[in-house]
């Protein structure tokens, strides 16, 4: 299969000219190694994976000898398996001014991240890779930043096919794991089966000491059933027959492994009685659809949960967009004690872009009335609108548009 360009490459190469070490984290199988090996082509960078028992033992027992054997510039895969290397990497970084010496990949495990931040502060850039976005799968990388203005949306519209609900739900159902792209249903099922059985179960045992695979599988399915809803630990605990503190710990573990994404609630001292509960999304909608046994894109599209999956897809497209872009934003959702909710608030340079998400092709324009709560704050309200299945951007008023979801 030919290589698909990843949006993170641009940011990675920029970091490579600035930091001495760069770590790419993310869930298993999202393409971290493939991307870095692709960027290594034509260079003399050494490659070593700590999945290899011999290399791992050497790294753990004698980091100095490890780097004499595998000389920088180097790409080390699965670096979380030998945290003993970090101290030696720090020493080597301090002995040279050369940039981009160490390329590392690892799953974003809590213990490893704490150790890396403590040991390599100021020497390492940390980037997160997710499974493929719809843009990447379509080999379509937009070159203009997303500001939700009508002009930007119209410029993007010229570069893509019209929004199509069947294509969108095929993407949601298939997910973005590179290995399942374009494969038939039976193989996709087997892939996700083994993904859960081998990678996930091994990781939760290593990282969280969880050995009850039956309960943990139930817990995964319970999370998939609550997709795009506020996290309810009582429900998760009850459906899995575990305690609420255990449910909390297990969810934190899934977040650390890059399986789920928790969208934080908006917080602002000027506003009272705001929700403090996160919303639960899956980083890969294909895995979520598999866990809930949606066996085809059509049944998912016509099923009762289709609106939730559509919301998950839109949220993750935006999370990926901002993880790879040059701007830093804060992504939250708004909910107050009157259950008034706005699906997404994108805060960038003190400006808030409010977004509603609707699976419909012609949602009710009155949805944007909710955005007026922002006028009670000192923050500036920027462009926003309703992300939906419409075929082209249509202005609602001076600041808001109907936004086709394939333009994100």
Describe the fold and architecture.
- The protein has 408 residues and is of the alpha/beta class.
- It folds into 2 domains: 8-128, P-loop containing nucleotide triphosphate hydrolases (Rossmann fold, 3-Layer(aba) Sandwich), CATH 3.40.50.300; 134-407, no CATH class.
- The protein is 41% helix and 17% strand.
- It has helices spanning 8-16, 32-40, 53-61, 63-69, 85-94, 110-120, 134-137, 150-157, 165-174, 185-208, 213-225, 233-240, 244-256, 285-291, 297-302, 306-324, and strands at residues 21-25, 46-49, 74-77, 102-106, 124-128, 229-230, 260-263, 279-282, 330-335, 341-348, 351-357, 380-381, 384-388, 394-395, 400-404.
- The strands form 3 sheets. Strands 9, 10, 11, 12, 13, 14 and 15 form a 7-stranded mixed sheet that branches.
Total helical elements? 16
Largest sheet: 7 strands, mixed
Radius of gyration: 22 Å
The domain count comes to 2
Question: Whole-Å distance between the termini?
Answer: 26 Å
């Amino acid at each position: 299969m030919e290589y698909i360009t990843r949006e993170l490459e641009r940011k990675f190469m920029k970091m490579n000219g600035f930091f001495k070490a760069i770590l790419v984290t993310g869930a298993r199988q999202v393409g971290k190694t493939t991307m870095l090996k692709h960027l290594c082509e034509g260079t003399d960078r050494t490659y070593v994976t700590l999945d290899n028992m011999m290399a791992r033992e050497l790294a753990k027992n004698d980091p100095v000898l490890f780097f004499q054997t595998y000389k920088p510039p180097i790409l080390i895969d699965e670096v979380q398996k030998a945290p003993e290397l970090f101290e030696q990497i720090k020493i080597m970084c301090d002995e040279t001014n050369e940039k981009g010496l160490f390329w590392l990949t690892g799953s974003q495990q809590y213990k490893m991240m704490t150790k890396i931040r403590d040991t390599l502060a100021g020497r390492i850039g940390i980037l997160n890779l997710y499974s493929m976005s719809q843009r990447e799968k379509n080999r379509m990388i937009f070159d203009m930043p997303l500001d939700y203005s009508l002009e930007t949306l119209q410029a993007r519209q010229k570069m893509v096919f019209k929004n199509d609900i069947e294509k969108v739900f095929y993407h949601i159902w298939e997910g973005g794991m590179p290995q399942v792209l374009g494969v038939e249903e039976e193989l996709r099922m087997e892939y996700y089966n083994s993904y859960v059985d081998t990678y996930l179960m091994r990781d939760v045992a290593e990282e969280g000491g969880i050995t009850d695979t039956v309960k943990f599988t139930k817990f995964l399915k319970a999370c998939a059933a609550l997709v795009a809803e506020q996290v309810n630990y009582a429900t998760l605990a009850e459906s899995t027959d575990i305690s609420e503190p255990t449910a909390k710990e297990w969810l934190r573990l899934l977040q650390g492994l890059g399986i789920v994404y928790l969208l934080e609630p908006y917080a602002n001292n000027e506003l009272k009685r705001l929700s403090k509960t996160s919303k639960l999304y899956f980083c890969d909608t294909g895995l979520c659809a598999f866990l809930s046994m949606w066996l085809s894109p059509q049944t998912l599209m016509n099923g009762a949960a289709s609106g939730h999956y559509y919301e998950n897809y839109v949220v993750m497209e935006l999370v990926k967009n901002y993880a790879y872009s040059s701007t830093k934003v804060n992504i939250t959702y708004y909910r107050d004690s009157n259950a008034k909710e706005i699906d997404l608030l994108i805060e960038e340079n003190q400006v808030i872009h409010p977004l509603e998400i609707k699976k419909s092709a012609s949602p009710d324009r009155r949805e944007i009335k909710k955005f007026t709560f922002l006028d009670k704050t000192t923050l500036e309200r920027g462009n926003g609108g309703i992300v939906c299945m419409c075929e082209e951007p249509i202005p609602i008023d001076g600041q808001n548009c109907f936004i086709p979801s394939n333009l994100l």
